[in-house]
Prior knowledge:
The complex is a heterodimer of chains A (193) and B (218).
Chain A: H1 6-16, H2 27-32, H3 37-67, H4 74-96, H5 98-104, H6 115-126, H7 131-159, H8 171-186
Chain B: H1 9-24, H2 35-40, H3 45-69, H4 78-100, H5 102-108, H6 119-129, H7 134-164, E1 166-167, E2 170-171, H8 186-216
Antiparallel strand pairs in B: 1-2
Helix pairs in contact in B: 1-7, 3-4, 3-6, 3-7, 4-6, 6-7, 7-8
Amino acid sequence: xxxxxxxxxxxxxxxxxxxxxSVFLGICPFLGVSGKLQTASRMGIAVxxxxxxxxxxxxxxxxxxxxxxxxxxxxxSYIVVIASMVQLVEMFIKKTSPALFKALGIYLPLITTNCAxxxxxxLQTTREYNFVQSLSFALGAGLGFTLALIIMSxxxxxxxxxxxxxxxxxxxxxxxxAGILSMAFMGFAGLGG
Amino acid sequence: xxxPAAENPKANRNTDVFLNGIWKENPVFxxxxxxxxxxxxxxxxxxxxxxxxxxxxxxxxxxxxxxxxRKFVAKEVRIAVxxxxxxxxxxxxxxxxxxxxxxxxxxxxxxxxxxxxNCIILGRAEAFASKNSVFKSLLDALGMALGFSLAxxxxxxxREALGSGTFLGFPLFGDHFQPWVIxxxxxxxxxxxxxxxxxxxxxxxxADRKKAREAQSP
Lengths: 193, 218
């Protein structure tokens, strides 16, 4: 067991071990949806929400599985929970804000295959976080994802106007920028420790 | 490449299915799928190879099984069925790796479980195996997995050689080599992949230009 304070876990997932830039979870949406600032921030919020809820549910399921000695069902049950969570969020957004639903488009159902969400669920299990720790971990990870997405989309909006060599256009330059961002985030190492 | 097609179209199609994944539609360098393990696991060649084997196993098994059941699964629930199939094989892999080597299991962290959400595998199940025969799906899975391994190997070699001066743990350079630590750190993954993409883009453009020149002056 561990008694790390929830606040430290939050800061750690948000900045020090940022989910996108140093743990490499959720790279696909990070490269795919970071073209426009508005879409990026909405995507971030949707992911954070799904992450938070599925983390709470995953904690419950894990307790249940441990009770019945059925840990081998963990991966399967987590992915089913996340898929149904995404479906729920999709219906909710469609009902409350059709404009946002349109803007997110294909990326909304794709949250299911966003490895950051399953990553949160798996990591909180292997690190044996308790309920409060799990929730702050999920919140930190989700906000960290949003932060990385927003920074990246801000840079890419400016990049539209820049003169990039034709070979490097698209993914290559995006990866280089991500590398520099990741280096910048290394500066947070040691924070709060 | 296209000339033998006229003589033996069927064989050619099968090899095409196989080769597509390795080069023309390489999952990492061309389709940009499944990036997370590509970046996270490639800080050493050993990890890259272990990850490749895990993905190979899951991709081949799930593609074959999806192709076998493709006629019995209703359209509305197919994604759910695919995910369950994939998750089953990932669980098998997870336990197998843990049984074979604990250090490798520790080094891969959550990324074995995360093969479930690797877009390559669900993508191939949906785009190929659910529409094609078992044999073709097997070829497709092998090709895609080899393409994925190729990419992992490319990245792993560069990162390990520059970042710790070794290849599979054997020292490559003399005693005076100063490891370029940034390459085994996360940002090195981004830089290396970006550089490989540049190399391949340059390669393709050169081939295109050559073809254009040949077309102009026969």
